[in-house]
Amino acid sequence: MPSNSERIILGIDPGTNIMGYGIIRIMGSKMEVVALGVLHLEKLDGHALKLKKIFEKTLALIDEYHPDDLAIEAPFFGKNVQSMLKLGRAQGVAMAAGLYRTIPIFEYSPRKIKQSITGNGNASKEQVSVMVQTLLHFREAPEYLDATDALAAAICHYFQNSPASGKSVKQGGWKTFLASNPDRIA
User: Fold this and answer.
1) Catalytic, out of 32, 63, 64, 73
2) Is-catalytic flag, 183?
3) Are 117 and 134 in contact (CB under 8 A)?
4) Which candidate in 13, 56, 64, 149 is catalytic?
5) Using one digit for the tens of pLDDT, what is the confidence trace for 52-105?
């Protein structure tokens, strides 16, 4: 990304009960929150209806904010195969909405996102939320950590592809990144 261009990144934390979303704007080396929130799906009857709502909400976010990229958290491997299958479907319909609008899609594992944001791939959702708040300079934590998880996916995508220093975090490590970007520390 050139340093003078504006980029919009939509981050999604897929879920079948709550889907988190977060949108960031990159202007030069500055990141800011454009929008964040959650889509509540718990009260909807049937998995197919939940998937329809995820598709519609993702499409609405794309149409309203015109993101350049969509960064999405990959499903994690767990013991409950049915839960993994449902989560994979939720991720798939969000990705389909991006594909429908020809938005490039980038998938990151939960561990990669946590590592990128906190420096620790085993960080808690609370630790990720605090670091996202610090990086984006907002004080009030959202009610649901799914929203900050979605912002974390968007920030991870930005860090992995074009941090202000011209190096990715993985190339120089957090010490190098922070030394090169003191304006990012609150």
Assistant:
1) 73
2) no
3) no
4) 13
5) 999 999 999 999 999 999 999 998 766 788 888 888 999 999 999 999 999 999
Q: How far apart are CA 12 and CA 91, in angstroms?
A: 9
Place of tokens 């620790």: 120
List 64, 126, 146, 149, catalytic entry: 146
Mark whether 146 is an active-site residue.
Answer: yes
pLDDT at 161: 86
Which runs of E-coded beta strand occur in the chain? 6-13, 18-27, 30-40, 69-73, 105-108
Question: pLDDT tens digits for 17-40?
Answer: 999 999 999 998 899 999 999 999
* CA-derived radius of gyration, the chain: 16
This prediction has a pTM of 0.84
Active site residue 13: yes
